[in-house]
Amino acid sequence: MSHTPHELHEEFPELADRISELKQTDARFARLTEEYHDLNRQIHGAETLVTPVEELTEVEMRKKRAHLKDEIYRMLTT
Description:
- The chain is mostly helical.
- It has helices spanning 8-11, 16-25, 27-47, 55-77.
- It has one domain (8-77).
- It contains four helices and no strands.
């Protein structure tokens, strides 16, 4: 279990400018990044026991975060 926050600008530092650009110009991308950010904070809270959740819930949240991250990456690189 990692307690690293997994912020998008840390996950994709070479794409930081593209992230900023798409947040401003693509409503779907902005919505996905906001959803990723919110979910990421929930996971970080669960990992650090600030807001404990059931193990299965945490696993499902991590899967959803991975899916969102994959989708965001596809949008960044196409």
